[in-house]
Specification:
Rossmann fold; about 375 residues; single chain; 2 domains; five-stranded parallel beta sheet; alpha/beta
Length: about 375
């Protein structure tokens, strides 16, 4: 993968096209979290310091018809504040339907904007779009510092981790993450499972799941993972259950994992949280992706909080794979206490699964 180190040091008079990930949360036109904008600043400042003129490409959401609420105008304003100068940011690339089709004509239009191309949008690197893959084939192309760090960190925890390597995998669907679970069952010392995805595993073992979210399609993959785990895969041993998905619902902790009829599991129990936290504290390397329960509802946040605090307090190399895990760290005020917080949930999982990322492959 070519990086900025492979680009000449003096870029005076050169024009750079930079793909950034500015897919930030907005509330009535106000940016509620500018983390992704800040993450791009080292690359942008380095290129500007080396004399380059920059044109930035980015997307926001999944527009269907140029919805004004998905305009990048407020993002551009915040970027200029942070940079202390005006930087050209083109409007949402997904306003053009040719973008997601990786249209060659659109890629050529992007290529005409510069003399070289830099991809610093790791969160979009798993998409073969015109601004992530197509244009990279038409210009001398390089990885920005953020994308470089993401790839090196994530591949490093599988190729040469400090042991023990502990993977904590949560969330809703086994089918979304079975690839990364399988990858860690081959590489990790311990794999800890939480969130609603534990219920297909319980169903595969013959436990009652009540009204819990239990992905039917996930039962067979879960069964295979259990057979292949060689004792490395750990499931919750107790649960917090409720009558419905609501902060006001009747809820209680149970000492096992059989969920009564009419109840649903919404968090791991206290013994599970303590056991998982201990595994994390004893680790040499930790990877975490996915919450342990419905952490956005206070009665069901304790399991995710325990994992987040253990990751933040651990002396290990700690890597958090974006998405809801990053949101949880932010909610608990711990986002600055991990070794690496990935900006790309889907991209990080696909990279760890061993899948090629089109936006990265194009930089080879």
């Amino acid at each position: 993968m070519r990086t900025l180190d492979d680009l000449e040091s003096d870029l005076s008079g050169r024009r750079g096209v930079v793909r950034v990930d500015f897919n930030v949360p907005l509330d009535a036109g106000r940016i509620t979290d500018d983390t992704r904008i800040r993450a791009a600043l080292p690359t942008l400042r380095e290129l500007r310091d080396r004399g380059a003129q920059l044109t930035l490409l980015a997307h926001l959401g999944r527009p269907k018809d140029r919805e004004p609420e998905l305009s990048l105008a407020p993002v551009g304003a915040r970027l200029n504040e942070l940079m202390g100068e005006e930087v050209e940011l083109r409007e949402n690339v997904r306003y053009d339907p040719r973008e997601t089709k990786n249209d060659p004509a659109l890629a050529a239009e992007y290529a005409a904007l510069g003399d070289f191309y830099v991809n610093d949008a790791f969160g979009a690197a798993h998409r073969a779009h015109a601004s992530t893959e197509g244009v990279a084939r038409l210009l001398p192309s390089y990885a920005g510092r953020l994308l470089q760090r993401e790839v090196e960190t994530l591949t490093g925890i599988l190729e040469d981790p400090k042991r023990p390597l502990v993977a904590v995998v949560g969330g809703a669907k086994v089918t979304d993450k079975i690839g990364v679970i399988d990858a860690f069952l081959r590489k990790a010392d311990t794999v800890l499972i939480g969130g609603a995805m534990c219920f297909p595993f319980f169903a595969a073992q013959g436990h009652e799941v009540g009204s819990s979210l239990c992905e039917e399609e996930g039962i067979e993959p879960a069964k295979r993972a259990l057979l292949d785990s060689d004792g490395r895969l750990h499931l919750p041993i107790d649960l917090v259950i409720a009558t419905e998905f609501s902060a006001d619902a009747e809820h209680r902790e149970i000492g096992d994992v059989d969920v009564p009829e009419g109840w649903m599991g919404l968090d791991v129990g206290g013994r599970t949280a303590n056991a998982y936290a201990q595994e994390i504290r004893n680790a040499g390397t930790v990877f975490w992706n996915g919450p342990m329960g419905a952490f956005e509802l206070e009665p069901f946040s304790a399991g995710t909080r325990a994992v987040a605090e253990a990751v933040a307090d651990s002396p290990a190399v700690t890597v958090v794979g974006g998405g809801d895990s990053a949101a949880a760290l932010t909610q608990f005020g711990l986002a600055d206490r991990v070794t690496h917080l990935s900006t790309g949930g889907g991209a990080s999982l696909e990279l760890l699964e061993g899948k090629p990322l089109p936006g990265v492959e194009a930089l080879a």
